[in-house]
Amino acid sequence: MSRFSILGWPVFRQAKSKDKLGRGPTVESPKYQNMRPRTEDADKVVQSVCPYCAVGCGQRIYVKDNKVTHIEGDPDSPISRGRLCPKGAASEQLVNTPSRQKTVLYRPPRATDWQELDLDTAMDMIADRFLEARKNHWEDYDEEGKWVNRTMGIASLGGATIDNEENYLIKKLFSAAGAVQIENQARI
């Protein structure tokens, strides 16, 4: 550890140099002179939207070697103007956590353990159940004899992590399938 010297104070360095206003290198400590931004070595920067709430704050996602290295607010976003709440600022942890689930898990009826499925099998199971529920609960007419052409056996419940475009497509899909119960928390 170096010995304390009053000559090392920034005010004395400032007085000895041409930096009279103290806005240049005279006020920088040696510790910080060699520091670089942690985003400097990113391969690319991708614009995105925070996945947490219905506000839709813009994010800049820094990627190096196909791995997210840093996420910060996007100053070009008209919604958040470069600001993020604590959850949005910590969303890099959501992407890079070692406990992130990356496979499809399925628990059969009355089973106590989960089993892994491949994505194609899971999608086929969902499609089969969707079509079966639609067929089993289809109504051409209601109790009063009005033509309704609907099913009450399927519904859609959207969330804040789905943007307006995705909600629009989900609404179109479920309406075309005859569903009536379609709820979304749209954003952006």
Secondary structure: elements and pairs:
Elements: H1 10-16, H2 30-33, E1 44-49, E2 58-64, E3 67-73, H3 86-89, H4 91-96, E4 104-106, E5 115-117, H5 119-136, E6 138-141, E7 147-157, H6 164-176, E8 179-183
Describe this structure in words.
The chain is an alpha+beta fold and 188 residues long. It folds into two domains: 44-96, ADC-like domains (N-terminal domain of TfIIb, Single Sheet), CATH 2.20.25; 104-183, no CATH class. It is built from six helices and eight strands. The protein has helices at residues 10-16, 30-33, 86-89, 91-96, 119-136, 164-176, and strands at residues 44-49, 58-64, 67-73, 104-106, 115-117, 138-141, 147-157, 179-183. The protein has a three-stranded antiparallel sheet. A three-stranded mixed sheet has the order 6-7-8. A hairpin with an 8-residue loop joins β1 (44-49) and β2 (58-64). The two termini are 54 Å apart. The model has no long low-confidence stretch (mean pLDDT 83).
Low-confidence stretches: none
The tally of domains stands at 2
Helicity level: 25-40%
What quaternary form is this?
single chain
Terminal CA distance: 54 Å
Rg value: 28 Å
- In N-to-C order, the SSE pattern is HHEEEHHEEHEEHE
Q: In terms of structural class, how would the helical and strand content be classed? A: alpha+beta
Number of strands: 8
